[in-house]
Amino acid sequence: DVKVTQSSRYLVKRTGEKVFLECVQDMDHENMFWYRQDPGLGLRLIYFSYDVKMKEKGDIPEGYSVSREKKERFSLILESASTNQTSMYLCASKPTGQHSYEQYFGPGTRLTVT
Amino acid sequence: GQNIDQPTEMTATEGAIVQINCTYQTSGFNGLFWYQQHAGEAPTFLSYNVLDGLEEKGRFSSFLSRSKGYSYLLLKELQMKDSASYLCARPGDSNYQLIWGAGTKLIIKP
Description:
The structure holds 2 protein chains of 2 kinds.
Chain A: E1 4-6, E2 10-13, E3 19-25, E4 31-38, E5 42-49, E6 56-57, E7 64-70, E8 73-78, E9 87-94, E10 104-105, E11 109-113
Parallel strand pairs in A: 2-11
Antiparallel strand pairs in A: 1-3, 3-8, 4-5, 4-9, 5-6, 7-8, 9-10, 9-11
Chain B: E1 4-5, E2 9-13, E3 18-24, E4 32-37, E5 44-49, E6 53-57, E7 60-65, E8 70-75, E9 84-91, E10 98-100, E11 104-109
Parallel strand pairs in B: 2-11
Antiparallel strand pairs in B: 1-3, 3-8, 4-5, 4-9, 6-7, 7-8, 9-10, 9-11
């Protein structure tokens, strides 16, 4: 079974703090994604990576950065957390392939910024 | 446009049948996904339709009409554990991305 893990299920941080969210997958997938999920808005893509050290902006990259130093690990960084970044953060991965659209999700990190 | 629309919330009775609709607008098309997400948990894959018609998987079936930009998820013999949000999604312009609907929260009552 594909396994995607995230470093924390719940996290509380203060405004202005630097926050690291870690994601690890064990299926050798090339592609990894970070989403945030807010009520009524669905999943919104923050960043994705299609290879080690490669990254692409998604729909809402402002206030975030990412790091992909190893294939299995994709980190999301909030340089200076703000209250509007309180959300559920979901990591996902998928293999490369013309018909490989299915994404596999981690359990999510619920981040609260106070 | 890339909008995907689905109802915000639906209520159904245990043992009944419910149909959750999803409409989308796009000129290109590479299939449509349905995911299930229980409260506080990650989305899990239910189905992927790339051709028109109905695909059945046990109590769950998914239908697609590409010409109408329309899909539905049909849940039969509803159980309390089916209470969850159901998300539809379609591939974006690149091979990497999925475009997501906001999800339909399904409430099952005894």
